[in-house]
Structure of ABC transporter permease:
Amino acid sequence: MSPLTGWRAALRIARRDVLRAKGRSVLVAAMIALPVLGMTAADLTYRSVQPTLADELTAKIGSADAKFEAAGVGPIQVEQPPGDAEDWYLPEGGSYPEDDGNDLSVDVPAALPKGSRYLTEQSAPASVTTRHGVADTRVTEVDSGDPMLRGRIELVEGRYPESEGEIVATTGFSEDSGLSVGDRLTVRGPGRFYTLTGVVELPANLREKSLYALPGAVIAPWQEAADTDKSVLPPQASELAWLVKGPSGTGVTWPDILAANEKGVVATSRQVALNPPPNSQVPAAARSEQEEPEDGQTEATLTVVTMALLEIVLLAGPAFAVGARRSRRQLGLVGSCGGTRGQIRAVVLASGVVLGGTGAAVGAGAGFGLTILLRPMMENLSGQRFGSLAVHPWEILAIALLGLVTGVLAALAPAIVAGRQPVLESLTGRHGSRRSSRVLPVIGTVVLAGGIALAMYGGLRGSTQVVAAGSVLAELGLLGCIPAIVGFLGRLGRRLPLTPRIALRDAARNRGRTAPAIAAVMAAVAGTVAIATYTASITAEQAYDHRPNLTAGTAAAVADAGAGTAELSQVRAAVEQHYPISAVRADIERVWAGSDCAVHPGEEGRDCGALELIKPTGKPHTCPLSDDGAKELAQQISADEHKRLMNSPACVDEEYSHRVFSGDDHKIFVGGPELLDSYVKLKDPAAAKALSAGTPVLLNSAYAKDGEVVLKAIHAYNDGDDTTRTRQAQKATTAIDRLKVYVAPDRYAATPGIQMIMPKKTAHELGLHVGALGSIYTLTRDPSEAEKQAAKAAVTRAGDGAGIITATKAAGNDDDSTRLLLALFASVVTLGAAVMTTGLSKADAETDLTTLSAVGARPGVRRSLSGFQCLTVALTGVLLGTAAGIVPAVALRLTDLRAALEAMRSLPMQSAYTPIVLPWPTITFLALAVPALAGLLAAALTNSRTPLARRVG
């Protein structure tokens, strides 16, 4: 007899059993469909968001055939590779022409293919008026309505500009500026008005904030205004580019590019990039280096597929075990009618085929629907449009087949158990109790310890492959320990109230059902915690390495030395009116030596006299990481010792060498106690008292010796020729003073832009000059775009000699949203696994629940029992997943530490700080909110009353 005959019967029995137990079947299919759905949606999203070469060309040149630009070295021959016009070379033996009055311009239109049509493109940064005030942006001159720009610039609202007085804005600029179609704006350079006729978007960069006008509408009038009015700064326009449509639709060929290269013109051609010529036809082939593609994508894909397969098996395995126990009488009848053990196993495996195929099909279809539904959100997160939904049929089919195969694998163990069960026990419904394995926890513990050790070894050796292998081993070892952990939890329930005690004991008694569900939750949470821990650590590292221009949470209203008191007053009023500031304002003044020049600071400002703190010589005052023996020292010290040295006042001075307030290199300023409180954040009554008494406050102790500093003042005097004010017309004298100072604690040495605060009366006693610089304000929050634009509008009315400075932020602030998305993903998997396991528990323990109702248990016991069962699975899985996720994150940070130490040893001033930061908000959310929500949902969805249809047993 054909073996297919037995399988036909098995599939028929399995199909009828699936339809008979609809609730359990839905749960099993959902468990298989959930990972398939996630993998399908992830595959579609990843393929759609990854730009192809054609997409990259469209983002650069739109629908044009090519983009031509002058190489910038004059009309001499250049050589370029086919795909990248920016990476060009001079021919062998060629040399750059000297810019000694020679004409380096190139007639680019003459180098275009004959019969082609072209558009010009040029851009310039500009300040424009908005609904809120004034904003900085970039204006691009190009005929954005031309078909050659389709795919690169798309109209969202209104129409494209048709005259020189019209302009369009991107969606990002329109939202920030508050401008809409029909509004007018002014480009402050030429001072001309433009009407906003439309809103566009760049599909490849949805976050772009810029304006588009017709060629000649902005830059040419701006240049004319600058030529006639010297107070108008000329535009800083980019080089012209030509978007070209080839003759008769033939495109731009490689010979066309070679001909353009001979005239000093380079080009990016769609046809050439998509179909590059052989290297024998490329003069620069031997000189251009082609980077080999990284092979990390295959490893990452295999890891994701393996984890998804494991999750399906862990989720669906107990469901098939429950189904086999519920159908044991039916399986016993098969055996009593002459069915073999193999046929009994085939019936259970057929359930895996039916439910696995159903779950795979439903999951793949739902993955398509979810991707289409969430497509706008994913496009906004990625900052680019998908274009068309990229479907790779073989990948989707492989994912669906994976769901089917793993559904069968999940039914394999229950099938083996069902095949071994005696027919008599199956017919009577009796089954003995099995003791859990005592060997498995021991093996799991050994594998867990070995996996952790291997991951840490890989981190210390800098091998991410070894880290990945060790992390997987550690997780597998923890999986082996879960049954023992569940049994331990059952013993903990002795002193708990009734329902949690029953829930823990039920979980311990049915470890074959509880342990895989906990493992599935653990797998999802482990990945989330690992990525969240790593990104949180990277964010902390970036924040540590960031060198702010101002103290965090402050803003400064600053005026140049040539600005008048009225201009500074207007800038202060702009900040106080539009920025969210506290009531405290700290005025700050500049101080210099020499003649009372009106022009200060800047290169000419040095002629008015300079101030400099002289750092004492010796070990406590010089940075050991910047002297001659720095590299030898870096080879000997650890990361912690390097961090201590980098934070020392002597080395911090090297790190914070840049100036904050324009032109004030010496970093000595005049201010009062309020400057200590608002900007330095030094809340020390002794320091404020010393400053009020006339004693300067030194923030960097490396410049002090015995409580004194050495101040060198170079006094420069003008000979009377105020119009030239050249260095040759100066006479300078140098004076050195020793000042008694109050030395602040070392942690204030890193205060941006300030080394010492001097009282005004002390400056006058030393014969120094003092002039207004500005004010420091403490912000209650970050200002919005509307507030910034309103303040900038007020500043522009005050003139160009004053401005507002706000503190810059470290990179990586978007990682919070990434961690939130990861936490939400883990929450969905946790809730799904916990709720599904609770449903299986109810189906498997229906006899116990009926018995509870028969002996008089309150209706709420059934509801609370379901809630505690769900809480047990979710909370245990989250806690174990957190522990498992920390292992790869720590190991990967050790890899980063190794790389940072190598960089530090070659560049001693390079920071080697590599912190490990746990994402406590994410962990707290997963450990508290998600299990509590799972328990409440399970309790709310449980029917509290069960009618007794017949006597059980």
